[in-house]
Amino acid sequence: MDAVMARRILVTSALPYANGPIHLGHLVEYIQTDIWARFQRLRGNECYYVCADDAHGTPIMLKAREQGVEPEQLIERMAEHHRQDFADFLIGFDCYHSTHSAENQHYAELIYRRLEDGGYIERHTIEQLYDPSEGIFLPDRYIKGTCPRCGAAEQYGDSCEACSATYTPAELVGPVSVISGERPVTRQSEHYFFRLRDFEAMLRDWAHGGHLQPEVANKLDEWFEAGLRDWDISRDAPYFGFRIPGTEAKYFYVWLDAPIGYMASFRRLADERGLEFDAFWGAEAAGQSELYHFIGKDIAYFHTLFWPAMLHGAGFRTPDAVFCHGFMTVNGQKMSKSRGTFITARTYLEHLDAESLRYYIAAKLGPGVEDIDLSFDDFVQRVNADVVGKLVNIASRCAGFITKRFEGRLAPRLSAPELFREFTAQSERIAELYEGRDYARAVRELMDLADRANQYIDAEKPWELAKDPERAAAVQEICTVGLNLFRVLIVYIKPIMPQLAADAEAFLNIPDQEWGDAQAPLLDHPIHRFKPLKTRIDPQQVEAVVEASKETLGGDTQGEHPMPEQTGGRLAEDPIDPQIAIDDFAKLDLRVAEIRHAETVEGADKLLRLELDLGGETRQVFAGIRQAYAPEALIGRRVACLANLKPRKMRFGVSEGMVLATGSGGEALWLLSPDDGAEPGMRIR
RNA sequence: GGCUAUGUAGCUCAGUUGGUUAGAGCGUCGCACUCAUAAUGCGAAGGUCGGUGGUUCGAAUCCACCCAUAGCCA
Question: What is the pLDDT of residue A337?
Fold first, then answer.
């Protein structure tokens, strides 16, 4: 095995944004990367897989403010969820860190200083819209107004969804801040720019140096053609992020320090395991070790232009490759909350097995950037037919004979060596397919072999021979061949289904297999009693996931890049109710209330017990907001309360009213509050 | 609007440099089998390869235009 030197490889997946849960769309990438990393390790290479939460930016800051918590609390809570989701999907990170970390600050500042020393940083004063009541500059997506071209209302500050015109926020008619509803004013501010244009020659070389998929390289040519513009890397305070060294109130734009998170996470790992950081990131590391980034095609710009340019400009190595993948559609359409196809990792896991999704995604992933479709019917049929019906079935139909008739012992000789060799001969072919990220083809080849194994058993008919005591040895040999074929296939599928492989190894009573281990047959060897390694998916499980997704998912679903929530189409999903008369409204007695006390309720994981001051009267109200708000963050806050609601006895006490909130529940919940000045007890109308 | 992909049997997808009757898996139907988580094996039906026009002896494969879908336009 020493003939070939082990490669040293570092791989990354894009950093998920810390303002929302992991969903199936994210998982395509983590599963793709994890399979690749596991494959590399299985082959005996030194391979590290690192990632982190992307924790900075305006959306995080505002979301924390909404929830009445510090951003640090918000991202910590989200990181916990992310880690758990990834662990349960068997994503084997060597390190999962955060961009809000000392390591990341160190490298962000280091890179910035080196770029500045190199003359790659410029300052310009720009005009930007500012929300005077909130005291913050507004990103384009936080401004809404009427499209100057077609007159469509409620359009974002950068482009019109109705006529797809693009413009600056200043051109919007009647612009308002999404945060405060106030009219923004224009203010000047000095911003810092990264001189991307200085790197054009270097980037052109790099783009065509075999580091990119052809379709991505084409895209870059388009961008070169259009001309590279300098990149605005600063944001004004208040901003949740790292302050730019040497400034009072300028912060790094979230996208500046996000990819640096790859370095930060590896730094952390290197410190933990005594690895040499520069061996993977130093300029001299190129050619000595390999660096790969797996990303979605939507963020190619950041990873194929800014990122290599930053690394190069700061004296680090550039990536060996950036691998782009497409998006996931569900039943041929974009994921949709109303259809219940916007599925979080957690919801999926509550009803289905992680490896089923890993298998299905692998079975459809090629090396290109095409979208892949998760079709529910296809998913159920494919996983059941391939994994249970074909693959696991081989072991299932052989094991009984060995256990019952031969005391669990495999035959001492291999009676079908040519068939076995047919299987082992595919080893390098399948390895190449994994290496080239053509998992779909690898799976197809693998399942063709599984068909061959089933055909073999069918042709040999051990159940018939078993009737004749004199043919006992033949029965044992046939089943031994079958189980050896199974073992080869298990090794081949191990990167995709590591848990299945581990269970199969336990059944076969063999140690943790490496890629080459299946080349020699397992003979005269005791195995354990067979237990079902995978059970079939019931279509009702999928239905349950869809139902649960319809119920629990809020508007809080952004992906790996910071953008405010999409609001378009919400009315289409949840139409306005039938009209009522003013008298109907008058029946509601809504009051301003101040939260005097808030505490969790023992035995209820959704409820908080609130004591509300209604301006002379204290009420006890139970509100189902525990997942969205920490009790201590609520105390002193003024909220809207339905005061004349009939009191209701609950298991934990009497609830004397209701606090008003929006959102669909769980973490996706936002309390309504009056502006400053409103006093407890004031009527709301 | 510009650009880039994609559009092949009911479903999910292969189809190398244009070349004989267009393939696979799943599903469906029939038969066989009963060791196996009703799993497996054998066989059959099923497509004017998004549309139109062109290049060519010959096009799913090349060209033009159109339609549909998705993405990018920092």
Answer: 73
Question: Which one, of A135, A108, A139, lies nearest residue A249 by Cα?
Answer: A135
Scan for tokens 């059944």, then name that residue.
Answer: A507
Regions of chain A with pLDDT less than 70: 1-4, 150, 160-166, 338, 551-587, 602-606, 627, 646-652, 663-669
Q: What pTM was estimated for this model as a whole?
A: 0.81
Distance A416 CA to B16 C1' (A): 33
Asked if A491 contacts A517 with a C-beta cutoff of 8 angstroms, the reply is yes
Closest nucleotide to residue A332 (Cα to C1')? B69
Question: Is residue A653 a contact partner of residue A622, using CB atoms and an 8 Å limit?
Answer: yes
Q: What is this model's ipTM?
A: 0.90
- Cβ neighbors of A467 (< 8 A, separation 6 or more) are none
Separation between the CA of A613 and the C1’ of B44 (whole angstroms): 77
Question: Cα separation of A223 and A301, whole Å?
Answer: 9
A487/B35 CA-to-C1' distance in Å? 19
Measured distance CA(A211)–CA(A318) in Å, rounded: 10
Does the CB of A462 fall within 7 Å of any strand B atom? yes
Tell me how far CA of residue A50 lies from CA of A10, A80, A260, A673, in angstroms: 8, 16, 12, 41
Which regions of A572-660 does DSSP assign to beta strands (E)? 590-600, 608-613, 618-623, 638-642, 648-650, 653-655, 658-659
Structure tokens at A210: 């075999």
Crossing angle for the helix pair A354-364 and A376-383, to the nearest 10 degrees: 100
State the Cα–Cα distance between residues A303 and A308, nearest whole angstrom. Answer: 7
Residues A30, A82: Cα–Cα separation, whole Å = 12
Bridge partners (DSSP) of residue A648 are A655
**Could you give the CA distance from residue A250 to residue A24 in angstroms, rounded to a whole number?**
36
d(CA A220, CA A215): 9
What is the reported pLDDT for A560?
A: 31
Kindly give the residue spans of alpha helices, DSSP state H, lying in A336-375: 345-351, 354-364
Q: Are A529 and A408 in contact (CB under 8 A)?
A: yes
Q: Would you say A46 and A444 are in contact if contact means Cβ atoms under 8 Å apart?
A: no
Would you say the C-alpha torsion A342, A373, A31, A316 has a positive or negative sign?
Answer: negative
